[in-house]
Design a protein that fits this description.
Blueprint (H helix, E strand, L loop, with lengths): L14 H5 L4 H7 L33 E3 L4 H5 L10 H12 L3 E4 L16 H13 L3 E7 L7 H16 L4 E4 L9 H20 L3 E5 L11 E4 L5 E3 L5 H7 L6 E6 H10 L2 E3 L5 E3 L4 H7 L6 E4 L1 E4 L7 E4 L8 H6 L8 E4 L13 H14 L4
């Protein structure tokens, strides 16, 4: 159990707590008692301490990558490519670059790669051996989280947890939002389901996590006149994922913020229609969301992007450190420095037939930029 830093004395209820209808006691419960998080973080200095002034903002043991970024390398035929291909070779390459943490995006590879079909219990043992051989730790997997609670879905979830334990993971999750709905009733159902699954994952020694896209930080439709189907059409100003965070059990449900998509949300989702029909501007700050409950975010996707307001999302993805997201401020100002596990991701890293080595080249460049990030 990691120790947690003591928060500064403050008897005011933060704005995010007021918006979510939480009192100070409830907010402290939602942050899982962040009271001592840096005393036993392996000597990593905490943000704000004198020793942290020029410290590594991403400690070397916590530099990770989600394998979706190099999915082209995982899936290609080693018999027809001079580049690292399949899990075994790609894990070796990533270890050589310097990565120490791995997040899986499923367990499929080319049939001709060593081990063949490793999407089995036996395959999980083989993957674990390759991880251990290369000094790598598996932190999580973007797998499937049941959308309904049945005997069959719980059995499948238990089986996924068993594979996660074989691989040595501490977390199990999904790359999808808890629900794609805008409506409060659907988010309530999702929160109820995730509380059940999170407690079940904890029984396997795992933390359950969800990953966000920008729409999860848009505004919840929870008030105002009903539409023809009886659904609310306006918002009280609460964002979907913030409501989910406040209404799931902090012991069992965690979040993996995709920092790129959170910044896209900052660009796109800044105005809502209030119950009285007026338009209200409410700017979103990803870092403030993390600060409100830092221990709820054990994982991040450290995805970078270049600003381009001609694009619908306001950004274009780029290798880590090559974009405009201020990661020095994001990681430098964050409480509990050293607790979180940033996984580099770039959806657009594969170069296709024209540049088959691109994703691994970007992996090297992104690692170098992680290494240079100080604060």
């Amino acid at each position: 159990m990691r120790n947690r830093p003591t928060p500064a004395a403050n008897h005011e209820v933060p704005a995010i707590a007021r918006k979510l209808g939480l009192n100070r006691r409830q907010l402290l419960a939602a942050t899982t008692g962040m009271a001592a998080a840096g005393i036993a973080l392996g000597g990593v200095p905490l943000a704000g301490s004198a020793a942290a002034d020029n410290a590594l903002l991403i400690p070397r043991p916590r530099r990770g990558i989600i394998l979706y970024t190099v999915r082209d390398a995982i899936s290609r035929d080693p018999a027809t490519s001079p580049y690292a291909s399949g899990f075994k070779a790609v894990l070796e390459e990533l270890s050589t670059i310097g990565y120490r943490q791995i997040e899986f995006a499923g367990f499929s590879q080319h049939a001709n790669a060593p081990g063949g079909n490793v999407n089995t219990v036996e395959g999980a043992h083989l993957l674990r051996m390759w991880l251990d051989d290369n000094g790598l730790e598996a932190e999580g997997n973007h797998g499937s989280v049941p959308t309904t609670i049945t005997d069959a879905s719980l059995a499948a979830f238990d089986a996924a947890c068993e594979v996660a334990n074989i691989l040595g993971m501490r977390h199990i999750g999904t790359g999808s939002d808890p629900t794609g709905s805008a409506y409060l009733a659907d988010w309530q159902a999702a929160a109820d389901r995730w509380n059940i699954l999170g407690e079940r994952a904890a029984g396997h020694g795992l933390k359950l996590y969800t990953h966000n896209h920008d729409v999860a930080y848009s505004f919840l439709l929870d008030s105002g006149p009903a539409d023809a189907l009886g659904r609310p059409t306006r918002s009280s100003g609460v964002r979907r994922l913030e409501w989910f965070l406040a209404n799931t059990d902090p012991r069992y449900v965690s979040l993996e913020m995709d920092i790129y998509w959170a910044h896209v949300a900052q660009f796109k989702h800044h105005t809502y229609t209030a119950p009285d029909g007026s338009l209200v501007e409410d700017r979103f700050d990803p870092l403030e969301v993390v600060k409100s409950a830092p221990m709820r975010f054990p994982l991040f996707h450290a995805k970078d992007g270049k600003k381009d307001e001609t694009q619908a999302n306001g950004y274009v993805m780029a290798p880590f450190g090559e974009g405009d997201i201020d990661y020095q401020a994001f990681f430098g100002d964050m409480p509990a420095r050293g607790y979180h596990n940033p996984m580099w991701e770039q959806d657009t890293a594969p170069g296709g037939a024209l540049n088959p080595g691109q994703s691994l080249a970007f992996a090297k460049l992104s690692y170098q930029n992680m290494d240079e990030l100080r604060g």
